[in-house]
């Protein structure tokens, strides 16, 4: 995930991407890193069948340089568009997540 100006990135894992993105976008935890740095755009994600593989990949990505992380994202999303921009279209949808 990134902030609006693509100057701050965040890497994490979840077993429910929809819920977790919603939490980041709505500042569910106001003291979190993503809330403090306004990180709201989902620009890249990978899916894994087992938690161990997901955790290993998260650690690998977190170990990359900033530029290598950006290169990884650019491979699938060259303009860093918000891949979740249409996931939560109205307040009713937001309340259900």
From TrEMBL:
The GIY-YIG domain extends over 1-72
Q: Which InterPro entries does its entry note?
A: GIY-YIG_endonuc, GIY-YIG_endonuc_sf, UPF0213_domain
Q: Which domain of life is it from?
A: Bacteria
Alphabetical list of Gene3D superfamilies matching this protein: GIY-YIG endonuclease
- One Pfam family matching this protein: GIY-YIG
User: So what family is this one in?
Assistant: Belongs to the UPF0213 family.
Protein name as annotated = GIY-YIG domain-containing protein
Instruction: Give the organism, scientific name.
Output: Candidatus Buchananbacteria bacterium RBG_13_36_9
